[in-house]
Amino acid sequence: MTEQKSLEIFDLGDFRLISGLTLPNAKLAYRTHGTLNEAKDNAGSSLLGMVR
Hints:
The chain starts with 7 loop residues before the first strand and ends in a 22-residue tail after the last strand. It is mainly β. It has no helices and two strands. A hairpin with a 5-residue loop joins strand 1 and strand 2 (22-30). 0% of the residues are buried.
């Protein structure tokens, strides 16, 4: 079994949605896996969930 990396946290501040609503003090948690190639075209992302 591989060791799971810890989450990194990016502070978005007050994040305004397209609807006009604002998420106060929003944060984005993410994990990175692997390495970008020279062209930097092998990245991917996925949304796993959102907590209020």
